[in-house]
Amino acid sequence: MMTLGNKVVLVGTGAVGSSYAYALMNQGVSDEIVLVDLNEEKAKGDVMDMNHGIVYAPQTMNIKFGTYEECRDAAVVVICAGAAQKPGETRLDLVNKNLKIFKSIVTNIMDAGFNGIFLVATNPVDILAYATWKFSGLPSERVIGSGTILDSARFRFLLGKEFDTAPTSVHAYIIGEHGDSQLPVWSTANISGTRIESKLSEERKAEMADQVKNAAYQIIESKGATFYGIAMGMARITKAVLQNEQVVLPVGTLLQGQYGHEDVFIGTPAVICRQGVKQVIELDLNEVEKEKLSRSVKTLKEIQEPFWK
User: Fold this and answer.
1) Environment class of residue 303 by beta-carbon count within 10 Å: exposed (0-12), middle (13-18) or buried (19+)?
2) Which residue in 289, 293, 212, 208 sits closest to 199, CA to CA?
3) Which residue out of 52, 171, 178, 261 is catalytically annotated?
4) pTM exceeding the 0.85 threshold for the entire prediction
5) Beta bridge partners of 34
6) pLDDT band at residue 91, thresholds of 50, 70 and 90?
7) Is 178 a catalytic residue?
8) Is there a contact between 36 and 10 (Cβ–Cβ < 8 Å)?
9) Assigned CATH for 149-304
């Protein structure tokens, strides 16, 4: 039986990990959060700092430092550890370094007796979510990558500004790789049912797609890393799992014939529930979008396949 409850173990307390833990605390998503990191002093400092804010949090909770042994009874283990993306470096450049790191991390987690749901944020996230699935031996629905949760949020934010509408009322997705081969699904983008595609010029649509795709590079150039946006997205996925929301979110999950592709983790809308990914929502793509998605799948597989032959 899969481990229930709402205990969350976070592995990796860098900028993304600590921001994610802070988001969980602020939103009252879990009543037990454990921070695990090789840099024990830094993680213990985060624990102390967060504990001093619990009095103002939505609910009381237990936040502590721990080891991989804490994964034994965790409902969700979130991996934010790994080498960081440097200026001028793409997410895919990180693959060699982070696959080695992940093999060690996932092995330690599974050796502790973990039987819950993995949530992966480290880049390149699509390839590392696939690796987590392979290393762990868990059913694919219990390994969730952050996928295009952040890219879609950026897309919705820009469209909200464009049409002077709250981004929560904008329904639009970025799918594919969380990276340079991602694509906006203009054919289904809408505001409360009103389609957006015909209201924008091709030039403007291309400009907005580039803004979404290049946002991370701009932020990295400005302050060294992106972490607030992805932390909020990860907290949203965690909440959807722990509260069995059955909500559709654009996450990284294994394709098993959807869109005509298989054996690759990639960003797509999916129903998220207490068991993980309940169902992939296959969008009705036009021919141009299908071709772009195929190129995105090809990009990931060309990087990924040599490691699994």
Assistant:
1) middle
2) 208
3) 178
4) yes
5) 9, 64
6) low
7) yes
8) yes
9) 3.90.110.10
